[in-house]
Amino acid sequence: MKVLVIGAGNMGLTYASAIGKSGYLKKEDLMVYDKSIELRETLKKANENFEVYDTLEECLPVSDIIFLAVKPYHNDELMAEMKEMMNDQQLVISIMAGVTIETIQKGLGINKVVRAMPNLPAQVGKGMTSYLAAPEISRIELWMVEDLLNSTGKSVRVDSQMFIDASTGISGSGPAYVFYFMESMMEAAKSMGFSDNDAKVLVSTTFEGAIELFNKNKLSPNGWMKRVASKGGTTQAALASLEDNNVKELIHDAAYAAFNRAVELGQTKEEKEQLEEVEK
Ligand SMILES: NC(=O)C1=CN([C@@H]2O[C@H](COP(=O)(O)OP(=O)(O)OC[C@H]3O[C@@H](n4cnc5c(N)ncnc54)[C@H](OP(=O)(O)O)[C@@H]3O)[C@@H](O)[C@H]2O)C=CC1
Ligand SMILES: O=C(O)[C@@H]1CCC=N1
């Protein structure tokens, strides 16, 4: 089996490296293509566990499974270039936010498409991926897809594309919400007089410890909050401030903003035009 990753950015490279390290494929069976010459040259020099190709003509026709890891706005241009070289036995795994299975099937003239939504912690083997396969994909093919996805962490199979868009708002974009929270706490620490480094250690160790506690048993986040908060103490003062400022509602809205944007990114030109007509 030959696997090709198209787009060697944050996520494409994460998959190529993880699959390469997993030993699941021989080096010559794991191929990477990116349109950037500089990036290709850097990757060739790095001598990773995959082969880097300069043209799609050399690698696409011989691949069995193809990861699409370019930004959604590069997809139309890429699919137009790929279409002539595709055959209907090839299986495509798209990790692009929003882009639907139907768009890829139509754009590439194939049926076997999996839509997956990973997240950036995949880079350290702690990724969370949701995925959905088109019905044309066999059970054996699905096992292979799961093996590839699980090389970066955990995965969950969902039963509609709505859940891929929804998980984009939770786990796909989610690491950025965590970093936002970390940044806010580090800024607060620095305003209290801590050095940059001390602020970083205070905050990152707090996050690490809290996650480890949370994973330790079945206690809910609220249960853990109660263990931290003494009656009439400091934590209660902080939690009351968060509640007064509707922070939970704001985080809820942020997750929905990402979910809605994923749906919007997936709309075809015709769907966008129809929507604009209705809104006029
Ligand atoms: N980053 C994240 O946390 C997550 C991202 N995703 C999805 O993954 C996809 C990739 O995101 P990310 O890795 O962050 O993006 P990056 O911009 O880091 O990587 C995309 C790469 O693809 C290259 N590229 C663009 N067009 C082509 C083409 N026609 N042929 C070959 N290569 C091309 C880009 O080159 P150039 O820079 O020159 O354009 C770039 O090197 C997106 O669709 C995103 O929605 C999903 C989950 C999480
Ligand atoms: O921001 C984005 O659109 C992508 C999808 C999920 C994370 N990054």
Structural class: alpha/beta
| Coarse morphology | globular
CATH level 1 name of the largest domain: Alpha Beta
Distinct compounds present: NADPH dihydro-nicotinamide-adenine-dinucleotide phosphate, (2S)-3,4-dihydro-2H-pyrrole-2-carboxylic acid
Largest sheet: 8 strands, mixed
Description:
This protein folds into two domains: 3-160, 3-Layer(aba) Sandwich (Rossmann fold), CATH 3.40.50; 174-245, ProC C-terminal domain-like fold (Orthogonal Bundle). The protein contains 13 helices and eight strands. It has helices at 10-22, 37-46, 56-59, 75-82, 101-108, 139-150, 161-172, 174-191, 196-216, 221-228, 234-244, 247-265, 269-279; strands spanning 3-6, 30-33, 51-53, 65-68, 91-94, 113-117, 127-133, 153-157. The protein has an eight-stranded mixed β-sheet, sandwiched between helices. Helix 1 links the parallel strand 1 (3-6) and strand 2 (30-33). Helix 7 (161-172) crosses helix 12 (247-265) and helix 8 crosses helix 9 (196-216). The longest helix is centred in the C-terminal third of the chain and has 21 residues, at 196-216. The protein is globular and about 70 Å long. It starts with a strand and ends with a helix. Bound molecules: NADPH dihydro-nicotinamide-adenine-dinucleotide phosphate and (2S)-3,4-dihydro-2H-pyrrole-2-carboxylic acid. (2S)-3,4-dihydro-2H-pyrrole-2-carboxylic acid (A1CAB) binds at residues 97, 168, 172-173. Residues 164-265 form the Pyrroline-5-carboxylate reductase dimerisation domain. Its EC number is 1.5.1.2.
